[in-house]
Design goal:
The chain is an alpha+beta fold. The protein contains eight helices and ten strands. The chain binds a DNA duplex through helix 6.
DNA sequence: AGCTCTTCCTGAAAGC
DNA sequence: TGCTTTCAGGAAGAGC
């Protein structure tokens, strides 16, 4: 569910209600997605939430130095990744608790910041300030901030399929399966094209397509495919603008050809076989995927 | 370097 | 109806 626009939507919601508030205690359910569960209870109570922002698909809560806790002088970031089904939002204690809610951060005003994650593919960890640069450098560039020349540099010479690189968070951070397909459709580039074979016009179109798609999706507060809701519990609307993702067999919005689905980079990929021409090599290879077992 | 397959987990939808 | 299989917005690791 959560790619860059959905995470941005969650972050914007949290930013209006969290900064300035202090975590008083932490309650945990299942913790197998938390790097160091005990550290949450040890290090977070007494810290004030100073900032809420997003890095790719990661949410960062910037926390003040602790009061009497150990290492009181050090600031810490709480880093949260929503995985496939994660959700983070603020509720009152009397509000019903959604199933699969596994972390409650109690705030000084009585409210609770809750983390819910059905599949627990999310991640939660504390990153001390001295570890932050290393963390950030493990991620690629923000797709909404990358210049045209950096965009080209990141992809030039790469023999991987363009879709695989768009999904690679160390190249650009924040693009997932939906927005990769939507951007490639918009740019009229087949997902299985090798990045090194894209010409400069195609690279330019792709960068612009990514920008347009992501910005519009953020305006629409993300895509709600099955159960994504924002920090307030409202669904997004961008799914109504999908042009490729999930549209197998339906007519292309540009040319009317039926949208096809194929596995590229190990993921379901939707594209228009007419607007997005397959690379020559590929047409001979890769027909049927062998059924295992 | 890059590809495919597997795994983590739960639930919805499709298949029989 | 009911049981089984497949698939899902993510990502890391193994093996080739």
């Amino acid at each position: 569910m959560p790619e860059l626009p959905e995470v941005e939507t969650i972050v914007r919601g949290l930013r209006t209600v969290l900064p300035g508030h202090t975590i008083t205690s932490v309650r945990l359910g299942k913790t197998d997605f938390i790097e160091d569960p005990a550290a949450l209870g040890e290090l977070l109570p007494g810290r004030r939430i100073e900032a809420v922002d997003r890095m790719g698909k990661f949410i960062r809560l910037g926390l003040s130095a602790g009061p009497t806790a150990k290492n009181p002088e050090r600031q810490i970031d709480l880093i949260v990744h929503l995985g496939m089904t994660g959700w983070l939002g603020v509720r009152r204690p009397e509000d019903p608790v959604a199933p699969h809610t596994h972390v409650f951060f109690e705030l000084e005003d009585g409210r609770e910041l809750r983390y819910t994650d059905i599949r627990r593919f999310g991640q939660m960890r504390l990153v001390p300030c001295e570890g932050f640069d290393a963390f950030r450098e493990s991620l690629g560039m923000e797709p909404l901030e990358v210049s045209a020349s950096d965009f080209g540099k990141r992809l030039s010479g790469r023999r991987a399929r363009i879709k695989a690189l768009l999904l690679d968070q160390s190249v650009f951070r924040g693009i997932g399966n939906i927005y990769a397909d939507e951007s490639l459709w918009q740019a009229r580039i087949h997902p299985a094209r090798l990045a090194a074979r894209l010409n400069s016009a195609e690279l330019g179109r792709l960068r612009q397509a990514i920008r347009r798609v992501l910005l519009r999706a953020i305006e629409d507060r993300g895509s709600s495919i099955s159960n994504f809701v924002d920090a307030e519990g409202q669904p997004g609307e961008y799914q109504q603008r999908h042009r490729a993702y999930g549209r197998e067999g339906k007519p292309c919005f540009r040319c009317g050809t039926k949208i096809r689905r194929a596995i590229v980079a190990g993921r379901s990929s939707y594209f228009c076989p007419r607007c997005q021409r397959a690379p020559r090599k590929l047409r001979s290879i890769r027909r049927q995927s062998p059924k295992r077992k």
